[in-house]
């Protein structure tokens, strides 16, 4: 999304607008609701930057005020207790977790601030969209769009151009596809 280093405008629309519809993450999630809890098995496939596979067992309460979830990754031998995303402001969330890695015999904690906006000097929108096909089968799509809005400027009586158009930039991608099978 950076402008060319020599300051020249890109020569084609392909350089200005890029939409990538090949996801870098594919998830297959199986969920079962048991006595007020949701038990899940996640099969996660990653193809960018390198091919990787991971499984997760997830347990979380079904109540609307749920504040935590428990995750176990058998391949990495990692156990985590993760808080729900806590709203700090309208667009900013905090999430905290504590975990134990059995391979390294280590305990640690993590925190992260997340938002659907932001980027490195450019505007970014990140979002998840869910599509329910039939009861018990949902698809969730994680996507993002990095953009610079078009800009029209001009001047009269100065050494600047009377009319100047910056056509903006858009780089969008479908990052994640999840198939979620829920048994009730």
From TrEMBL:
Pfam families: DUF7781. Residues 12-182 form the DUF7781 domain. It comes from the Eukaryota. This is DUF7781 domain-containing protein.
């Amino acid at each position: 999304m950076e402008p060319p280093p020599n300051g020249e405008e890109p020569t084609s629309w392909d350089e200005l607008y890029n939409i990538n519809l090949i996801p870098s993450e594919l998830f297959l999630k199986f969920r079962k609701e048991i006595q007020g809890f949701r038990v899940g098995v996640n099969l996660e496939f990653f193809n960018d930057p390198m091919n990787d596979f991971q499984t997760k067992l997830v347990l979380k309460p079904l109540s609307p005020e749920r504040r935590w979830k428990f995750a176990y990754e058998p391949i990495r031998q990692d156990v985590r207790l993760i808080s729900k995303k806590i709203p700090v402001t309208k667009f900013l969330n905090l999430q905290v977790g504590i975990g134990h890695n059995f391979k390294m015999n280590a305990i640690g904690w993590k925190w992260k601030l997340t938002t659907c906006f932001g980027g490195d000097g450019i505007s970014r929108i990140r979002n998840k969209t869910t599509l329910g096909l039939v009861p018990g089968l949902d698809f969730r799509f994680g996507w993002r769009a990095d953009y610079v809005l078009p800009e029209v400027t001009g001047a009269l009586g100065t050494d600047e151009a009377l009319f100047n158009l910056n056509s903006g930039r858009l780089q969008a991608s479908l990052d994640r596809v999840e198939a979620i099978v829920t048994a009730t």
